[in-house]
Design goal:
Helix content: 10-25%
Strand order of the largest sheet: 4-1-7-8-9
CATH architecture: Sandwich
Strand content: over 45%
Shape: elongated
CATH topology: Immunoglobulin-like
Number of strands: 9
Number of domains: 1
Largest sheet: 5 strands, mixed
Order of helices and strands: HEEEEEEEEE
Structural class: alpha+beta
CATH superfamily: Immunoglobulins
Amino acid sequence: MKKIVFLFLMQFILVGSSEAAVKTAGILTGKLTTDSECAKGQNQIWVSKGRTLLYQADLPANGTYEFHLNPGKYNVVVTGSEGCFVETVAELTKGKEKEINLNLSSGKTERTPAGRSVR
């Protein structure tokens, strides 16, 4: 009986803390598009805060990404296989989703969750 109570309490603690982390995190999402040859191969996405690299991942053309991050400002850079790149700053707030669609040849397009475009 003690073992069952202990397991129940551990599950409650772990689930509760992960739910709290999701509620306090900001979510950065987006899609990479391209209309040039510089990004037809394998591309990289880099997410950093200040001088600290937090994430580096492969991102194919027309691929999507999602990062769960603490609130704050982040640098987002995508580099193409032929040396082109696009960069932006993403400011995340607690419990909100920020969608930033990146285009390697013409810059970035940001969209708020409501769908209003900002250029």
